[in-house]
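User: Predict structure, ligand LD2JLWAY.
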Amino acid sequence: MKPLAVTLGDPSGIGPEIVAKAWSRRKSDQIMPFFAIGSAASIQAVSSIPVVAITDPNEVISIFDQALPVWDIPSKETIIPGKPNKAGAEVAFAALEKGVALVKQGQASALVTAPVSKAELYQVGFTFPGQTEFVANRCGIAADDAVMMLAGPDLRTVPLTIHIPYRDVLEQLTPELIISRARVTVEDLKRNFAIPSPRLVVAGLNPHAGENGTIGREEIDSIEPAIRQLQAENIDIKGPFAADTLFSPRARATYDVALCPTHDQALIPIKTINFDNGVNTTLGLPIIRTSPDHGTAFPLAGKNKADEGAMVAALVMAANSAHNRQAYAQNSIDG
Ligand SMILES: NC(=O)C1=CN([C@@H]2O[C@H](COP(=O)(O)OP(=O)(O)OC[C@H]3O[C@@H](n4cnc5c(N)ncnc54)[C@H](O)[C@@H]3O)[C@@H](O)[C@H]2O)C=CC1
Ligand SMILES: NCC(=O)COP(=O)(O)O
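Assistant: Predicted complex:
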């Protein structure tokens, strides 16, 4: 398989440090060969690991054992850990563009993205809510058909609405949105995660899942019709369940993924239970894309305090997903 392409994210954030630390764990964690895309100087500012500049992903395999291969995108200004600037955001943007292109061209097996700062990217012409929608756009997929899934060893969740204000959730949470996100989720739990018959649950939006319409009608008007339609398609989906009890160990044992009406309903449990090995992956794409579940953590950058566990988990998941997808495609051909 081709190596993984790993964007360094915002060069002033913890991305360069966690990528360097992940490379140091390549043998102990049996991490598939990868190359970084971004500012080589941003790695050297926070780590003493050897880096080697590459211009062709085919060079990676021979270098990876001894040094971290880097597709260098130099910054116009000095990069200072913890102090983001426009030049760094431009590098992050260019790295993301290059990473998607290389994976789409088949020069890398999957894309792993370190965290970016959305606020910084907005200053350099980035117009997407996040990397999820950017990668979808570059792959020719509509934003609504690209599904964010957070996955850790103990839980998988899908936020049905993502980076929008709460006041917009009620309008966006339509039966159509729930149905399309659920279908994509089912398909990619099969293709990327080798789960043949995924079990889905849906969390309610309102307290007590609306208590029969007495504390809000979104469950009756949007979620239940969507579930009925999906069940008619033989999808194993249940709910809506009160969100407050859906993440207990007993409840988690009953499903493979929980679909949650809001961003925080989906991300709080993952970041509480699996912060240091939680992965954000995008479903519904022609390529595999994973990312650690956390952000740029600017105040931590340059202090050698960032935990690389989620980056290691994102690398491992990217490799496994690429492998599973290949096997799934092969099985479909073989009949
Ligand atoms: N995948 C991505 O590109 C993501 C980007 N972000 C961006 O990150 C920026 C900061 O967002 P925040 O909400 O502050 O989230 P954050 O994840 O950067 O930080 C939240 C808390 O977790 C800690 N933390 C994060 N990663 C850590 C690690 N690897 N090891 C140890 N501690 C860690 C931080 O020090 C902080 O206390 C924002 O601009 C946001 O847009 C946020 C989430 C994901
Ligand atoms: N809260 C998740 C997050 O911000 C990551 O978004 P994305 O950049 O992966 O779309």
